[in-house]
């Protein structure tokens, strides 16, 4: 499911639908057709789903940045549920 800020994702759970694993990766992405240059969305990913979620976005030619996720220092991001 895509859309809205998900409480589970904001607490460090993978954004992949139905996944309850702790996030290890932060995937920042942008849809250039609707997001201005400074607006980025964030999905979180566990080790199992980081490649899937990144590939989902890259297949749509969205700019994507991937970095390690640290729940202790990542409280300000707008985190959405993934696909």
How are the secondary structure elements laid out?
Blueprint: H1 7-10, E1 25-29, E2 41-45, H2 50-58, E3 64-68
Antiparallel strand pairs: 1-2, 1-3
Word description of this protein:
This protein has 83 residues and is of the alpha+beta class. The protein has one domain (7-73). 16% of the residues lie in helices and 18% in strands. It has helices at residues 7-10, 50-58; strands spanning 25-29, 41-45, 64-68. Strands 2-1-3 form a three-stranded antiparallel beta sheet, with helices on one face. The longest helix has 9 residues, at 50-58. It is globular and about 30 Å long.
Summary?
The protein has 83 residues and is α+β, with helices and mostly antiparallel strands. It has helices spanning 7-10, 50-58, and strands at residues 25-29, 41-45, 64-68. The radius of gyration is 11 Å and the shape is globular.
Q: Roughly how many Å is the radius of gyration?
A: 11 Å
Question: Globular, elongated, flat, extended or rod-shaped: what is the shape?
Answer: globular
**Count of helical segments?**
2
Mean pLDDT metric: 81
Helix content: 10-25%
Given as residue ranges, the uncertain stretches (5+ residues, pLDDT < 50) are: 1-7
């Amino acid at each position: 499911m895509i859309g809205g800020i998900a409480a589970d994702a904001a607490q460090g759970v993978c954004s992949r639908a139905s996944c309850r694993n702790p996030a290890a990766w932060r995937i920042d992405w942008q849809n250039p057709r609707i997001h201005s240059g400074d607006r980025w969305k964030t999905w979180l990913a566990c080790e199992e789903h980081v490649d899937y979620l990144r590939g989902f976005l890259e297949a749509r030619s969205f700019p994507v940045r991937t970095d390690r996720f640290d729940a202790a220092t990542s409280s300000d991001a707008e985190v959405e549920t993934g696909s």
